[in-house]
Amino acid sequence: MRKLKGLILMLLISLSLFGFTACQGESGNHPATYEQITPQQAKTIMDTKQDYIIIDARTQEEFDEGHIEGAIMIPEYEIKDKAEKELPDKDALILVYCRSGRRSKIASEELVKLGYTNVKEFGGIIDWPYEIVK
Q1: From CA 59, how far away is CA 108, in angstroms rounded?
Q2: Which of 25, 66, 70, 81 could join 132 via S-S bond, C-beta 3.0 to 4.6 A?
Q3: 67 strand-pairing partners
Q4: Per CATH, which fold does 32-127 belong to?
Q5: Catalytically annotated residue among 42, 55, 71, 98
Q6: Rounded to the nearest 10 degrees, what angle do helices 102-113 and 79-86 cross at?
Q7: Is residue 98 annotated as a catalytic residue, yes or no?
């Protein structure tokens, strides 16, 4: 019985330590993340702020079919390789979208991993009720 109590205590300590470190970022704080916003919130930002960057995380072909005015096309699979060259200010407000929202989430996660601090993901162009450039 005493061995079982010792084993349970060791297990609880191990789980506590693992849970504590797994929830921390590299600096010991909570990990950085992007913010999920609605297309309407993104449009408000575009209408009221001047300093922001819009990333279209789709392919060139999709981008050419229609995109949000002022968007920079960086496909989600190229974010890791192109972000630092295309987006030198890691504190800039960056709005990210794709076709349906899947790739924009992946791109946003990658931007955060690369150290970008103000990333807002607003889903897909299929849910964008405003004008696009064709």
Answers
A1: 16
A2: 66
A3: 133
A4: Oxidized Rhodanese; domain 1 (3.40.250)
A5: 98
A6: 60
A7: yes
What digits encode the pLDDT tens for the residues 26-42? 444 556 799 999 999 99
Tokens of 80: 């890791």
Strands (E) in 5-134, as ranges, are: 35-36, 53-56, 72-73, 94-98, 119-124
Model pTM score: 0.77
How far is Cα 20 from Cα 25, in angstroms, rounded to an integer?
Answer: 10
Between vectors from CA 128 to CA 127 and to CA 133, what angle results, nearest 5°? 135
Asked if 56 and 72 count as a contact pair (C-beta separation under 8 A), the reply is: yes
Encode pLDDT of 115-130 as tens digits.
999 999 999 999 999 9
Which token pair is 1?
């019985």
Under 8 Å CB-to-CB from 26, ≥6 apart: which residues?
Answer: none
